[in-house]
Structures are given as structure tokens and as C-alpha cells.
Amino acid sequence: QQERLDMATTGKCHCGAISYSAQGEPEHHALCHCEDCRRWSGAPMVGWIAWKEDQVTITGAPSTYKSSEQGSRDFCAQCGTGLFYRNPEFLPGIVDIQSGTLDDMEGHPPGAHIMAKDRLSWAKDMTALPEFQTYPGIE
Q1: What is the rounded distance in angstroms from the CA atom of residue 70 to the CA atom of residue 130?
Q2: Which terminus of the chain, N or C, has less C-beta within 10 A?
Q3: 3-state class of 83 per DSSP?
């Protein structure tokens, strides 16, 4: 446990223009199913891992999109990667980071599904779909 507290969790956008480092343990890591996150990401769900704002150091200059009255989303204007979400009203002092941008995603499994009331009906059984190690027909 102590070793994890001393280590930084790092990540970056697709082109590398924006990177971040988070110290210590995250507050939570969850897969969000809300429509707002789906539309923002273009994906059926989004992983969010959260730290206290003072635990996160950002290098580079993300652009900000005010996605609701309370929330804002930061992204890389060069490559379009979604990176950070802040909502001072509902998540004071917290920065949510899209967990798909972590350098070590495997080492940070999510602990919950959130906004499951908005989950797409077919998303619950995605593990039942056929699997291909690469693209079908290329293996």
C-alpha cells in the first residue's frame, strides 16, 4: 500500500501534447454510462478515475468545453483526446480523468458502474459477443 502512495499515476493524450501525473490513491474509478459521457466520447461508456485537484499536475494546455451549467470537459485541441472533467457543484475539489488515457490502464481496474440507469440495453451483455484477437479475417 505505501509503495502505491509514493508512486505517480501518469497518462497523456493521443499525440502527447498534454500529459498528467497524479500522486497517491485515486478517490474512485468507475465506468460511466450517462448520455453526456457517451456523446462526449463517442463510446458506449467512459472510464473516469478521480483524484483531488491538488494531487494532479497537468503539463500542456488543454482546451475546455463547458458541457453543462455545472460541468466542464478538457481535451487536447491538437488530437481531440478527451482528458478531464470537473464539476465544482457535485464533485468539489475533484478532477476526473478519462481512464483510457492512463499509461497503465491494466494496473487501475474500475471499481463500479455509475449512471447505470442510462446504460444502453445491449451494453450489459457485451462479453457475450464474439471475440477476435485482431480484425476478423486478418488473424
Answers
A1: 40
A2: N
A3: strand
Residue 123 and residue 33 in contact, taking contact as beta carbons nearer than 8 Å = yes
Q: Pick the residue with more confidence: 19 or 5?
A: 19
H helices within the chain, ranges in order? 2-6, 35-41
CA 31-115-41 angle, to 5 degrees, is 55
Residue corresponding to grid cell 480523468: 97
- Grid coordinates given for 129: 459477443
Q: What are the b/e assignments for 76-102, b being 16+ CB within 10 Å?
A: beeeebbbbbbbeeebeebbbbbbbbb
Q: Provide the edge-to-edge strand list for the sheet that holds 19-23.
A: 8-12, 19-23, 56-59
Q: Residue 1 above 50 pLDDT? A: no
Share of the chain above pLDDT 90, in %: 81
For residues 19 and 5, what is the distance between their CA atoms, to the nearest angstrom?
20
Is the pTM above the cut of 0.90? no
* pLDDT per position as a tens digit, 23-79: 999 999 999 999 999 999 999 999 999 999 999 999 999 999 998 899 999 999 999
Q: Would you say the C-alpha torsion 95, 100, 102, 105 has a positive or negative sign?
A: positive
